[in-house]
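Q: Hi! First time doing this. I have a protein sequence and I read that you can turn it into a structure. Is that right? Here it is:
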Amino acid sequence: MKVALFGAGTMGRGIAQVFAAKGHTVLMYASSPASAQRHKDTLGKSLAKRVEKGKMAQEAMDALMANVLIPQTHEEAADADLVIECVKEEMATKKELLNELDGFCKPETVFASNTSSISMTSLAAATARPEKVVGLHFFSPVPVMGLVEIVYGLRTSQETIDIVTTVGQHMGKRTILAKDKPGFIVNRM
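A: Yes, that's right. Below is the predicted 3D structure, encoded as structure tokens:
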């Protein structure tokens, strides 16, 4: 699976780590390729500490890091199977990104948001594929926390829910299905 990850902060790096550790190609985007490279370097330093402590093999770290790529343009995400956005928690920013990606990503690409509270139905309205828009709300630190909320909007298809449920479980996460309500499940509680 090829994953395009937009937003390489704490959550983005953690999501990249989990996918790359499972052998998936991850395109890591930040505000610029140089910024994305700095985030990848931060991930490498974190993993190197795990290797030093004997909690990870050097070969596993090398394989994981090789799976994280730094693209130069958004268009390199055109053939991604899954897009995950982790950009700042602003509706306009998220909608603008999804609208742009909708213009060139393949029709079967699933768009997921790691938002902790923004409506999936509203985000999906920025695309011509609302049935392919879903929430994948990971918790921090992503490599450690075992839960992921799958948030469906008004028009999210069952096929999309099934795809991301399988993906979440493959990542070793416990998945829970949440309606598109403020705070979803965990933050509401």
